[in-house]
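Memo subject: From amino acid sequence to C-alpha cells
Keywords: amino acid chain, backbone geometry, C-alpha cells, three-dimensional fold.
Body of memo: The sequence and its C-alpha cells, given next.
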Amino acid sequence: MRLLFYNARFPDNTTGFLSVEKGRIAYIGSSRPAGSFSREIDCEGNLLMSGLFNLHCHAAMTLFRGYGEDLPLQRWLHERIFPAEDRLSSEKVRAATALAVAEMLRGGIVSFSDMYFFCEDSAEVILSSGIKANLSRSLVSFTEGQRAKGDPRFEEAVALYRAYHNAGNGRLKIDMSLHAEYSNVESYIRDVADYTAAQGLILETHLSETKEEHDDCVARRGMTPAAFFEKCGLFASPVVCAHGVWLTADDRALLAARGATVVHNPCSNLKLGSGVAPLALLTSAGINVALGTDGAASNNTLDLFREMYVASLLSKGISRDPTQAPAAALLAMATVNGARAQGREGCGELRAGSAADLILVDLDSLNNIPSYDPLYTLLYSASSRDVLMTVVDGEILYEKGVFYTLDIEKIKEEFKRVCDY
C-alpha cells in the first residue's frame, strides 16, 4: 500500500509530506512527491512522528491491574502476584495480551518487549494484531546445580524460538529471558547464557531493581548482580536490563562496555517504592537507555507518554537542573534507542528508508493548544489519548478509535469473562 501524509507537522517543527511504500518511509519533504497513492491522509497540522517502543512489559498482567496496590516489590510479588500467576491459563494470557496490545496500539506503541508465560498464546495475538514485539519466556531456577537442559521452562523457551522467531515478516522476534539474579542459580544462568550467545539472541532480565535485591546479592555472592551476570557470561549477548535503579558506578561502566541496554521504568519503580534510576548517570556512562512501562499490575497503564514525562521531570527535580533529560533525549529513548535494543535496525527514526512505524498525535487537543514546538508539546502536554493513528510497517492498525485488526468489543468481553481474580 502506498500512503501519502500531507499537512503534517514533524518533531523538528517543519511541515510537509511523508510517503510510505512497501512498508517503509519513501519520502519526507516540503513538496508533494510524484505518483499516485492508495490513500492520502490529511494530517491537518498534527504531529506525525515515529511510533513508540515499550522495552519492558508483561502484557498479560493487565489481568492484575489494581490487584496488588500499595505494597513494596517483594510483598507485592509473594503476597499477590505469584499466587495469582499460579492460576494463569492459556486462555487468560491470550485474552489479557489482546487487551494490552489494544491499549498499546491506541497509545502509539508500535513495538514492545515482553517477558512472561504461555508465550505461544501471546505470539498468536501479536501476529494477528500487526504490532511488533520481542517475546521471551521468563525463566527461573532455584535448585543448586540445576541445568537448563531438560527443564520444562527452558524447553518451552527453545520451542518458542524455533516456532516463532522472525515470524510475521520479522515483526515477532524471540528473545531469551532470565527473570533475575535472585530467582536463578549459577549453573542455570550459565547454560542460558551459552545458549543465547550460540543462537545470536537478545536476553532480557530484571537487574538491580530494588536496594534489597542488590544488597542481598552482594551479601550472598560478594558481588553485585551485574558483576555476577558478567561472571556467568551473560553479557556475551546483547542484554536488555529492566530497571537498573541501584547499579553502581562499576556496574554502569560494565554495562556500557558490554553494549547492554538499561530500560528505565519510572512509574513502576516509583509506585513500588523501589527508587529512581539515575538517568543522567546512565546516559553519561554511555549506556543505551530505553523506556518501559513494566506490567499493568505495577503501573497501572501501558502509557509511554507518561513514562517520558515522569522520566524527564524526575531527572530535572532530583538534579535541580532543568536542562537535564531534554525532550529530544527522551524521545530518542522512547523510539530509536528502543528499536536498537530490540535488534531492529532501520526502525524508530523518521527518515527515508526507515520502517513506516508511525503515529499521528493530535495537536488540536485542548491540552496541546498552543503548540509552539511540537517536540515540547509531545513531552510535556500530550498524552496517549491524543494519538489519532498508529501505523506499523505501513499498515494502519488504529485510527480515531477504530482498530482495524482487533475486535475490541470481543476482546473486552473475553477479558471480563476470564478475569476472575
Remarks:
- The chain has two domains: 3-50+352-401, 52-341.
- The domain at 3-50+352-401 is CATH 2.30.40.10 (Urease, subunit C; domain 1).
